[in-house]
Amino acid sequence: MLRAHGHDVRVLERSSAGTGSGRAARGLLSGGLDSAEVGREVRTWGAEVVHAHNLHPLFGWRALAAARAAGARTVLHLHNFRLFCAIGVAYRSGGPCFACHGRDTRPGVRFRCRGSTGEALVYAAGLALQQPRILEHADRLVTVSEASGRRLFELGLPRERVSTLVNCLDAASFAARSRAGDGGYVLAGGRLVEEKGFDTAIAGARAARVPLVIAGSGPDRERLERLAAGGPVRFTGWLPPEALAELRAGAAAALVPSRSEEACPYAVLEAMASGLPVVGSDLGGIPELIGPDSVVSAADAGAWAQAIGRLWADGPARQRRGEQNLAAARARFNQERYHAALIDLYAS
Description:
Elements: H1 21-30, H2 36-45, E1 49-53, H3 60-69, E2 73-78, E3 91-92, E4 95-96, H4 106-110, H5 117-137, E5 140-143, H6 146-155, E6 162-164, E7 186-189, H7 198-208, E8 212-215, H8 221-228, E9 233-237, H9 241-249, E10 253-256, H10 266-273, E11 278-281, H11 286-290, E12 295-296, H12 301-313, H13 315-332, H14 335-347
Parallel strand pairs: 1-2, 2-5, 5-6, 7-8, 7-10, 8-9, 10-11, 11-12
Antiparallel strand pairs: 3-4
């Protein structure tokens, strides 16, 4: 997006997928690895702003410090709760968990949120050590919803340097018109993990006798398939973006039954941009995206069945809500709006 608007952009990426556990642990505990590379890039290209995402475990606070020492200002984009939570999503035992707050990351060790005690200890120590340094070296902080911002303030994020930028979509993501009134199924999509609440979608669709399509892959698929056995539920597995867009075009509504506090899920943005009505949970940033009339308690399976059944039975209402969502998505999630807000943030 920035390149399309004429900006010179360089991308510096590191993946922990191929990094050994020892090196990753060293990066997390020491505040990042090879920070001199960041400084060299800033000086070589004359970068004015370093916009950072997901610093842990390989970049860390030292990357921000190196950027500033080389003459750039720094922006840290907070897509989740990773500054405070070892698993980022702040989810445990069936619901949101914010036991770790400020620099007190000891609950993550007690609950072994990273799986093993050793890894939990490394993350607890690394997050506690890095957090004040990261906040010290980030000139601006960005949250992706007002709800996640409020939660991050409660956890210890300083308010005075924080801006909120709701995620955006490219022009090709917006449908020409809504077709929700003619849709043949309800749709839920994303990574198949417990905190996404797909079991709630399955239970609601089965109770309402409404066909449900679930798009995505993940470790919870086997359990979900058992729950769906004998019901009007189809699993597509992972799909490329073009196939997902086609699936949304044939849907009557989208379901986003998250049990965790998702900040600004693309499942909602893309459904609205496709002209679909959305039924979403009452957690995180979902309510501010879809509005109070489309929100259902994440813990109330019966309410999900009723909401799905009402939408399925009323094609004109689906069409009307789909058209309203498409208009709202065009106004709120377009790249021109996002670009203008981002450049204002950089200028500040």
